[in-house]
Design a protein that fits this description.
Number of strands: 13
Largest sheet: 6 strands, mixed
Strand content: 25-35%
Order of helices and strands: EEEHEEHHHEHEHEEHEHEEHEH
Radius of gyration: 24 Å
Structural class: alpha/beta
Number of helices: 10
Number of domains: 2
CATH class of the largest domain: Alpha Beta
Amino acid sequence: MNTIVEFSDIEKSYPDKKVLKGINFKIEEGSVHGFLGPNGAGKSTLMNILLGLNFLDAGEVKKEEGLKIGYLPEHAPLYLEMKVKHYLKFVQEIYNSKDDQFLEEIIDRLGLREFENKTIGKLSKGYKQRVALAQAICHNPKLLVLDEPLVGLDPHAIIQMKELIKDLSKNHTILISSHQLHDLSQMCNRISIINNGVIVKNGTIDEIEAEIKHGEKIQFELAEDNDQVVKELCHQYKLSFNKVSNCTYEVTSIEVMELKKIVAKFFFEKQIVVLSQVEKKMDLEEIFKSVTSESHQ
């Protein structure tokens, strides 16, 4: 797979803090790459370095020759008094692009045709975000950088925006910075997790899940509701638990301990019927919590 951006040993400091501490990762052509990190992790600083909005102290950012980048910031620079199509033509002029046919395709592709002559300020939040996405790609960039593209949208608009991003990934490589972990797992095929200035995990979601599986999680259903005996199980084996519904529980261990056998034996000895028991995968949010807590230890 062709690498279009490579970060090598990136370091960046401010007077009171070292923000980036030797960052290394690649953005591969055709990927949808999720970039995750808690506030203060160095995520925004690295994105600004990629975009040429900030200088690095050490290291190197290698970009494919002639790489065009489109950028959707968290707070998009929309001119609310302008009409949609006029604004997009204005942005094209800034990029010295005159591809009217491509602009027409983008207006159709993002569902903006019926709003092209409407004032941006009168649009809903969801459609303003579509205009913001259109301005990021109206010059037909190879790499599209999206900073928190789902923040502030209602559930329906989030679904629509995710579908638009998936559609755009057919023609553009995409880097998405977001705290919407569940949504990223539905859009991205690779993720990089940054914490305290370093990349703590990098790869496909399956690869990262395999790397960090220190513990186990299972879900089981009892014949009768019994919170007290589940608490007893957790106290005895140092487990955490979550009640999914009546009679159904999830328990999690912090280390590999053949949890299914332990649970089965425990309830057998208590003469409590277990109707079902299944191993559960850690979701992206649990991965994020695991690796960011590890990096502080």
